[in-house]
Design brief:
mainly beta, 7-stranded mixed beta sheet, 122 residues
């Protein structure tokens, strides 16, 4: 089993930066893909970005490309989402997810964190 624990959410001013962390415990293999999703009130869960656990070339949604960066520290079993130039429309609950294949669909991931709230003020 893989367990994911997220942290780093909070309130930030528009144009600012925030870094989310996702720590994986339990069975963590290098083949796992890690994804970030977000869900705003009244909207469906939206793909943000993903990467292979030991990979280099991540995939990003067009809405965050150039502003958000996924990185990892495999020694700490941790994946990060660095968010720069934040906009009010980035406000959402952000979720970390893990799966063998990855991709842009939530159904492609087997394990999910509880989510962390990110609020961007104007």
């Amino acid at each position: 089993q893989v367990q994911l624990v997220e942290s780093g959410g909070g309130l930030v001013q528009a144009g600012g930066s925030l870094r989310l962390s996702c720590v994986a415990s339990g069975r963590t293999l290098s083949g796992y893909a890690m994804g970030w999703f977000r869900q705003a009130p009244g909207r469906e869960r939206e793909f943000v970005g993903s990467t292979r656990w030991s990979g280099v070339n991540p995939d990003y949604a067009d809405s965050v490309k150039g502003r958000f960066t996924i990185s990892r520290d495999n020694a700490k079993n941790t994946v990060y989402l660095q968010m720069n130039s934040l906009k009010p429309e980035d406000t959402a609950v952000y979720y970390c997810a893990a799966g063998w294949r990855g991709g842009r669909g939530p159904s492609e991931y087997n394990y999910w964190g509880q989510g962390t709230q990110v609020t961007v003020s104007s």
